[in-house]
Amino acid sequence: MFLALRELRHSRLRYLMIALVITLVAWLVFLLSGLANGLATDNGAALKNMDADGLVYQADVRFYLHRSILPMSDVAAIRDVEGVKDATPLGHLTITTTPEGKTDKIDATVLAIDPDGFLAPHITSGQMFDPAASDQVVVNSTYKRYGVALGDVMLVEPSGTRLTVVGFTEKQTYNHLPVVFMSIPSWQGLKYAAPGSSGSIVDPISAVAVKGDGGIGDRIDAQVSAVEFASIQTAIQNLPGYSAEMGTVTTILVFLFVIAALVLAAFFYVITLQKTNQFGVLKALGARMPYLAWDLISQVVILTIIGVALGAGLSYLVASLIPADVPFALSNSLVVTYGVVLLVVSLLGTILSLVRIARIDALIAIGRVD
Amino acid sequence: MVTLALDGISKVYGDASDQVIALDNASLTLERGELLAVVGPSGSGKTTLLAIAGLLLRPTSGRVILNDREVGDLTDREMAELRLRYIGFVLQSSNLLPYLTARDQLLLVADLAGRRDRNAGNRADALLEELGLGSRKQHYPDTLSGGERQRVAIARALMNEPEVILADEPTANLDFQRGHEVVSMLAREVRSRNTAAIMVTHDERMLDLCDRIVRITDGRLAIDARQGAQEVTLSER
């Protein structure tokens, strides 16, 4: 550390610039991971927050809720399967709503549930809808941003069906849209308004949410005809666009780590080459490799920690300034994890320099041997 | 008392078909309190001699004895340890680290030995004062003159209380007056501390300050009597 600190202090500009590069990379890493986290939450929060172990879909619909259609009778059939503790119906529909008297069009995902079942959301204000009153709904807090309050009426486009907001919930989004919770019959009235649109299926639902032990998936698939089970995790992975979004962000993150490693490796390698003669002198004086290695490593660790700390600080600053409707969620555990990854990556980048230093012969200190 | 002895040292570079003999059966003893000059044209083998005496290079044959201890079969690690404890180097102009102050150049030696404490600080201060650098302690090499830099290098070489100081062309980039000043300081320190030094040089004008002169030609050593430097210094004592 004796040399490391003195050199950092003496060549301030040079090391400040590399610390700045690390800061920017760390900042970008944290922003992207926050965005990834936010997008994932935005897309699948309703599924993630479900108190269920899995969803049962119509077979061969690639776990797309909007394509899946099952008869209500499957709920009872699934409940009878060994290991299943509970099962409750789920209906899905994407709608466009307009608060009465306004022109805002708000896209939303309808999730139809049994208000007494385990999918009932946590009500933050107001109350749960009454299944007997077909126009009552509970909506996600997103609607408050559009000025919607308890008791307000919204019209469903284009049919003009009236929905009355009786309660608010939070953290319920699906496919990046706020969720509107309503009863199964109300939902059926919206989705299957036209006679015969549900085909031969009587009393249709989209899927069945189940709770049970680890083996229920196989047993449900075997014992109930024309259905397919997916764990909540699989269901999230198969949300439309989910893997594409995550894949893009993950690719960028991986590239950032590689870039960070290469930039640091190149920077320290060039500096090491430049200092070849100094290392020769140090070795002639009797410095051994562990002393020189620790010196370089402590420089890298100090610069990386400074860079990552600044990057994290800037990210939290951005997180506090970002508007609420941008899907951005910075989590402390992600910041710590990626900070450690950056540190490891920067240490990997020093290997090249360490090998170089180890190969320097003390003899060069006394010039060319004649 | 003999502190360093080279006994029948040879150094051969290259393979059997293309051999270059840098040193040919060279023998040399160095006594305490003595400043020995090695002079010779470039390519004569004087740098090789210095490298072997400084435990930076192993001879092809022959024995190196430091303080009555033969250092023939030591590992690189052990050689580094001996360099750190027993040998001081004063190298050509660019041998100070650019990012250390004059004082830190000296403390580095203590840090390498794992003994950077208050004593080391006091010792560094005393050495710098002794070499006339009392007001330059916090200066970086780029703000020191060439002569001052070499004086810092001498102070650094003395920091670990070495048995032997090896100086490689210490006056290479200095004018006569500055060079003479640096070498006389080196000679003074060697005598007052009863240590010993070998100085490789091509500058004949510095030889009057040396106790003994060895000429090297094509890898062979010859004790030089012409300069009469020995008599001069003996009479001074």
Quick take:
The complex is a heterodimer of chains A (370) and B (237). Chain A is α+β, with helices and mostly antiparallel strands.
Core attributes:
heterodimer, A: 370 residues, 2 domains, 6-stranded mixed barrel, elongated, B: 237 residues, alpha/beta, Rossmann fold, 6-stranded mixed beta sheet, disordered C terminus
Please, how many helices of chain B?
7
Count up the domains of chain B: 1
Total helical segments of chain A: 11
Structure classification of chain B = alpha/beta
> Could you give the count of β-strands of chain A?
13
- Written as H for each helix and E for each strand, in order along the chain, the element string of chain A is HHEEHEEEEEEEEHEEHEHHHHHH
Largest interface: A-B, 26 and 41 residues
Helix content of chain B: 25-40%
Oligomeric state of shown chains: heterodimer
According to CATH, the homologous superfamily of chain B is P-loop containing nucleotide triphosphate hydrolases
What this model shows, in words?
- The complex is a heterodimer of chains A (370) and B (237).
- Chain A is elongated, with a radius of gyration of 29 Å.
- Chain A has 2 domains: 2-42 and 242-366, no CATH class; 60-225, no CATH class.
- Chain A is 48% helix and 20% strand.
- In chain A, a hairpin with a 3-residue loop joins strand 7 (153-157) and strand 8.
- Chain A has helices at residues 2-10, 12-48, 73-79, 184-191, 216-223, 232-237, 242-274, 276-285, 289-321, 332-348, 351-359, and strands at 54-58, 70-71, 84-99, 106-113, 125-126, 136-140, 153-157, 161-169, 173-174, 177-183, 204-205, 207-212, 227-231.
- A 6-stranded mixed barrel of chain A has the order 3-4-10-6-8-7. A two-stranded antiparallel ribbon of chain A has the order 2-11.
- By secondary structure, chain A is α+β, with helices and mostly antiparallel strands.
- Chain B is α/β, with parallel strands linked by helices and 237 residues long.
- Chain B has one domain (2-233): P-loop containing nucleotide triphosphate hydrolases (Rossmann fold).
- Chain B is 35% helix and 26% strand.
- Chain B contains 7 helices and 10 strands.
- Chain B has helices at residues 46-53, 76-86, 102-112, 118-130, 146-159, 176-192, 229-236, and strands at 2-13, 20-31, 35-39, 61-66, 69-70, 87-90, 164-168, 196-201, 212-217, 220-223.
- In chain B, strand 7 (164-168), helix 6 (176-192) and strand 8 (196-201) form a beta-alpha-beta unit.
- In chain B, helix 3 (102-112) packs across helix 4 (118-130), helix 4 crosses helix 5 and helix 5 (146-159) runs parallel beside helix 6.
- The longest helix of chain B has 17 residues, at 176-192.
- The radius of gyration of chain B is 18 Å and the shape is globular.
- The model of chain B is unreliable at 226-237 (pLDDT under 50).
- The chains are: A alpha+beta (370), B alpha/beta (237).
